[in-house]
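Our working data are protein records whose layout never changes between entries. The record below serves as our worked example for the rest of this section:
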Amino acid sequence: MARIPTAVVAASGLVGGYGVARWSKKRPLGGVALAAAGAVAAKEWERQAGGATAAALCGMYVAAFAGSHPLAKKIGAWPSVFAVAGGMALASWVAVDHRRCDGTT
């Protein structure tokens, strides 16, 4: 079975978490979606690239979530979420997923 790239999982967690929180009007529910995707991504980061890489990407995931809030005040909520999700996807792809594309895993 084909695996979903961790970049997609991480970006989807950020976008999906915000979307769930916004549309349900229940921020904790959005947090559950954010955390669930983050946990799946973290497990794959560790499995594919080791603990140090996973820890760094987990820190970036949390920083992306936190950083989206002040950024939203400057550029708007959805643009902010998409910006940090894109940055997180890029970091995850560079650190982990590109290895699958070039056959090194």
Q: What stands out?
A: The CA atoms of residues 72 and 79 lie 7 Å apart. The radius of gyration is 14 Å. The mean pLDDT is 93.
